[in-house]
């Protein structure tokens, strides 16, 4: 019974990570997500202040002081970056990072924008537009979505999720940035409370060099990097109904030698390059999207669910199942 309980807890935790719940701890401290949209409803607003009172050293005194103040300074709203045709890719990425930094890191204990990783790209881009309108502080996962939105108009820049799991004093910590690749060099966009755990300029020759740069930053804070999760390149089509592939490769850094890690990262880089040559499925037009429904499913047809087994852990290759001719004949037309 004990083994079954432990396994069920592990499976539940992995399911939560699939739905994006891995980000619900900030430095080991749980935080809330505003699921009611904006403006923030009264219940969420009061819950946020109660949470601040619990986690801040000054407790309720700080909350009362801020809420009663009548002369709080007006916070400037940053402007979304614009570019001249001659602006280089590195300069554009630096401008995007400057904008993300100006929004500031969210220390309130309540994430203002709900990010569900299972949502299609077009829905996540709508949330990114709202971020630019509201100009509220953000956390690392929100910064990734915003980075994708702000680089959609840069076809020469490929983007991919890059997340880390580190360990310190027996606790695990999660962080995510947006990896970028252009002109044969890698870099990253993002936000963090730590200066060297977010932006990385477009100057790393390989993905291994970029990961090692982050690993060195973690060591500077006495954190041990345990896992690296890397997704596939994200479509530049803001209306795409595709889902972001967040975890194409899951690498156990502490179980791989340096050479094994390098080979795994080289293999992932090749996988990402292969995806560039594959055309994405076209997004449905507005009229078709309104009238398009799911095809009828027979009583014996199982509902297909994307399994965690389909992800490739470190050291393993994906194996493509050969379909029988009978199966192929039944699916000549894809809906």
UniProtKB/TrEMBL annotation:
Q: Name one Pfam family in it.
A: Vasohibin
UniProt biased composition (Acidic residues)? 12-24
Comp. bias (Low complexity):
293-304
Q: Which BP terms from GO are recorded? A: regulation of angiogenesis
Q: Show the segment(s) annotated as Disordered.
A: 1-28, 267-335
Give the annotated active site. Answer: 140, 175, 192
Biased composition (Basic and acidic residues) is annotated at 307-321
Q: Which GO terms describe its cellular component?
A: cytoplasm
Task: Please identify the protein, giving its name as recorded.
Answer: Vasohibin 1
Whose protein is this, by species?
Dicentrarchus labrax
């Amino acid at each position: 019974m004990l083994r079954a309980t432990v396994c069920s807890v592990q499976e539940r935790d992995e399911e939560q990570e699939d739905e994006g719940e891995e980000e619900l701890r900030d430095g080991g401290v749980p935080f809330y997500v505003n699921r009611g949209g904006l403006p923030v409803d009264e219940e969420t607003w009061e819950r946020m202040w109660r949470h601040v009172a619990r986690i801040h050293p000054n407790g309720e005194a700080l909350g009362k002081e801020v809420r009663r103040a009548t002369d709080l300074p007006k916070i400037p709203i940053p402007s979304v970056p614009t570019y001249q045709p001659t602006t280089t890719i590195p300069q554009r990425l630096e401008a995007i990072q400057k904008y993300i930094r100006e929004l500031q890191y969210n220390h309130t204990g309540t994430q203002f924008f709900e990010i569900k990783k299972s949502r299609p790209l077009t829905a996540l881009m709508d949330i990114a537009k709202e971020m630019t309108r509201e100009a509220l502080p953000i956390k690392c996962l929100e910064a990734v979505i915003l980075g994708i939105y702000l680089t959609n108009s840069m076809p020469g820049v490929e983007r991919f999720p890059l997340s880390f799991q580190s360990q310190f004093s027996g606790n695990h910590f999660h962080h995510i940035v947006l990896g970028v690749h252009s002109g044969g060099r890698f870099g990253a966009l993002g936000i963090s409370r730590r200066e060297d755990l977010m932006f990385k300029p477009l100057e790393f020759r390989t993905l291994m060099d970029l990961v090692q740069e982050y690993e060195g930053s973690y060591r500077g804070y006495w954190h041990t990097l345990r896992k690296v999760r890397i997704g596939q390149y994200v479509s530049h089509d803001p209306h795409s109904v595709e889902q972001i592939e967040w975890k194409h490769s899951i690498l156990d850094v502490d179980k791989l030698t340096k050479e094994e890690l390098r080979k795994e990262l080289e293999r992932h880089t090749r996988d990402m390059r292969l995806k560039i040559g594959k055309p994405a499925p076209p997004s449905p037009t507005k009229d078709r999207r309104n009238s398009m429904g799911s095809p009828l499913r027979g009583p014996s047809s199982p509902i297909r669910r994307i399994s965690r087994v389909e992800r490739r852990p470190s050291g393993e290759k994906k194996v493509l199942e050969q379909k029988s001719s009978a199966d192929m004949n039944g699916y000549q037309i894809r809906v």
